[in-house]
Amino acid sequence: MDDPSVLAALVAEGDDLDVLVTAVHDWSIPTPAPAPGRTVAHQIAHLAWSDANALSALRTPNAFRAELGRAETEGSGYADKAAAAGAAKPRSVLLDEWRAGRAELAATLLDAPWDHAFPWYMSKVTPALMAPLRLMETWAHGQDVFDAVGVAHGPTDRLQHVASLGVLGRALSFAAVGLPEPAAPFRVELTASDGQTWVWGPEAAAQRVQGSAMDFCLCVTRRRPWPETGLTASGEDAQKWLEVARVFL
């Protein structure tokens, strides 16, 4: 692995969420949008299922392609059905499955060639991309749980990996609403939890997004709409981006 920091960040993010959900004894508490009808149990079940799918894709790509076929056939209800099935398990069983699965995935990613391509939903990915993708999803679904139980989810420097995916996902954001990606360059300037500024794009770019890293990550994971954050956008294309921003379909 060329960049062990992202894998360490993935493990730490899962551990932080583990501490929270272990202290929450009622996993039937509803979690907020963007997935109405889900509970704390659904969020953990979704993470456990996603980790298991990532392991399958890495270890047995041919078998995983059958899973991709089921996803295409079932459409939007595919992930919801899996989350509901996991949420129906006893809390202790689901917690143990999630812990074992995420530990096994981290160990497998550590040993995998960093540039090895394997199948994933709608594309191929590598461990170099899968690690931050799993970090992003753990953080985002963890945010749902933090919101549900009323506990502050403090920002960490791990958000840099999530923010990077958000910046890389600009083309996806526009494509998801049927728009071409603007040709003009963008500048993104985000303030980290320690006061540092994380920067992407040329300094002279007219299309600019500025604000806290936490707000940007909440926006691109669709946990908060842009108007409910402190982000500012200069330029028509930058404003449209924040309106439609996402890191997944």
From TrEMBL:
Gene Ontology MF terms in the entry: metal ion binding
Residues of the Mycothiol-dependent maleylpyruvate isomerase metal-binding domain: 12-145
Domain spans labelled tRNA wybutosine-synthesis: 182-225
One Pfam entry name: Wyosine_form
Domain of life where this protein originates: Bacteria
Matches recorded under InterPro entries: DinB/YfiT-like (IPR034660), Maleyloyr_isom (IPR017517), MDMPI_metal-binding (IPR024344), tRNA_wybutosine-synth (IPR013917)
Protein name: TIGR03084 family protein
